[in-house]
Amino acid sequence: MNIKDLDYFHQLTLQKNFSQVAEYFGVTQPTITLAIQRLEAEFATKLVQRDRVHNQLLITDTGRQLAVHATSILRELQITHQEIDRLTQQRTILGLPPIIENFYFPKVAARLQALGELENLQTIAGGSVHLRHALRDGQCDIALLGSIEPLSYQQLAVNEFDHRPFSIFVSRQHPLANRKRLYFSELRHERFILFNSSFVHNTAFNKLTRRNHFRPDVVYRANDTHIIMNLVAENVGITFLTTIVDQHRDDVVRLELMDDEQPQFITSIAYRTNHVLTAAQRQVLTVLRQTLGSA
Amino acid sequence: MNIKDLDYFHQLTLQKNFSQVAEYFGVTQPTITLAIQRLEAEFATKLVQRDRVHNQLLITDTGRQLAVHATSILRELQITHQEIDRLTQQRTILGLPPIIENFYFPKVAARLQALGELENLQTIAGGSVHLRHALRDGQCDIALLGSIEPLSYQQLAVNEFDHRPFSIFVSRQHPLANRKRLYFSELRHERFILFNSSFVHNTAFNKLTRRNHFRPDVVYRANDTHIIMNLVAENVGITFLTTIVDQHRDDVVRLELMDDEQPQFITSIAYRTNHVLTAAQRQVLTVLRQTLGSA
DNA sequence: ACCCTATTATAAATTATTTTTATGTGGACT
DNA sequence: AGTCCACATAAAAATAATTTATAATAGGGT
């Protein structure tokens, strides 16, 4: 069986018109007719049915079943091409969430450069959900993912390499600045400045407010932790961030949370279980684990 | 690209010998050579390498990457064939764990017969792990699965339809027979007769003994709940089973467990997310939900 | 009722692809 | 040096896919 036939059929289920599909692929119309006939013979079933009354093409039950599988075969093949291309080019594409890229990547990059691996590395940015899809679709080889729950997906091999608590950051002028530790419930009447672009931060924060039964007063949301920290320094409000964002500023104080069963910011290295790691990629993994785990 | 080439290559990665693969497929040796050359051209990479010194065939990095994807494409195609065959034959294959088959299926079968659906249904038995693989590999369309944790797999659509506690069953002559409820920790010095063939029962039982810090005295393990119940009736020991196994015998007494956070026997209906349900299969699902959920 | 159009099917010819047959090559083993 | 093993190559043969040309079918318009 030829993959091309599956491709023709897949398009046919989308466009529902033999002639248009033929044009789409730059072939003549009988080519499509014959391809569908081949598939119908191979699977010994009718795949499509013409409805002349409504002038449309109906896909049969078995046709829809084939379409589902055809889609996933075609996707798998596309991933295969992408992966092998990257392997032959000796390139690795690494998916990085912005937080990790901002605060850790300089260190990682320095180590990789020392090993001569930086040239072969290309990064793409994105939130955890986006990067999970990018991994799945073969758009990147390895990704770092932030999460609150341990990640569990059959198609992904996941190594958690770091668990970090979330902390509260307040201005040095803030009444709480002389505290070292506190409970989240003490923050009931505070003004919050929050990180907008992190699904993980927001989920963790919502968990804590819900558990402590209060509606937080969120005065501002920003997409950049520097902006948040500057606002906190000016005492516009306080913030809630994972400690990997700790910048050691002397105008901002970090306060630990003492609550039981706090959410944790889990960072994991993930790659497809289907993916064969090259020597270079294994080296990238080692560097990531060393740099990120020990920091 | 022809699927056949992937099949040739897949076998080559297993057998590592062109001539043997040719014989395996009943073709001549150059056929395999040329197929591999086609794939190498398509993916613009070397896939295999001859090691004349050790007289063996090495698969390159990219070759192994292709092999992984080829395997999954070939499996998907096989599933497609199996599914479409069953669709055209109007058959449904239902995977049933023995416990559920023994105690619930008569009721389900009666309802299905009334609807004229029983003839088209074929069942296969097996433990939850086995049935999950059977589902994945297209050997069955729908399966009932027992578990303690909620099931979560990307390729499976899962509906939990019943949660049931585990209970203790003792003989009417047993000192505990006049109790209605008890804590698991009270069973520290009891003799147990356990169900052998259920992964789920054993996991739940182990959870409770570990939590209560004792090593149970297991005097016998059987694969059939009737045998277990007969032994319990004779007061050879007591047992631990989910309540779906309740047989309303008057020589055996069921005792509820009062422990917090008890494990639950979760029964779920599962099918591949890739699977298109036919009208008949949807009817089977409805009957299953009604019969099993309300019991 | 007739023609027109849109859409798909069919047949034969053409072109492309795959497989076979026959033979070559390189190296290990004796 | 000869032989065998394992794979490669070239040309011929066999298959398979595509195109060209044309047919079929049915709905819509007049």
TrEMBL record, chains A, B:
The residue stretches assigned to a coiled coil in this entry are: none
| Any single GO CC term annotated in Swiss-Prot or TrEMBL for this entry | cytosol
Keywords of the record, alphabetical order, are: DNA-binding, Transcription, Transcription regulation
Q: Does the keyword DNA-binding apply?
A: yes
Q: Which PROSITE patterns match?
A: HTH_LYSR
Q: Which superkingdom does the taxonomy of this entry point to?
A: Bacteria
Supply the InterPro entries for this chain: HTH-type_LysR_regulators (IPR050950), LysR_HTH_N (IPR000847), LysR_subst-bd (IPR005119), WH-like_DNA-bd_sf (IPR036388), WH_DNA-bd_sf (IPR036390)
Q: Where is the HTH lysR-type domain?
A: 1-58
Q: Drop me one GO molecular function for this one.
A: DNA-binding transcription factor activity
Q: Supply the PANTHER family for this chain.
A: HTH-TYPE TRANSCRIPTIONAL REGULATOR YBHD, NITROGEN ASSIMILATION TRANSCRIPTIONAL ACTIVATOR-RELATED
Q: Which family does it belong to?
A: Belongs to the LysR transcriptional regulatory family.
UniProt-recorded name of the protein: Malolactic fermentation system transcription activator
- Species source reads Levilactobacillus namurensis DSM 19117
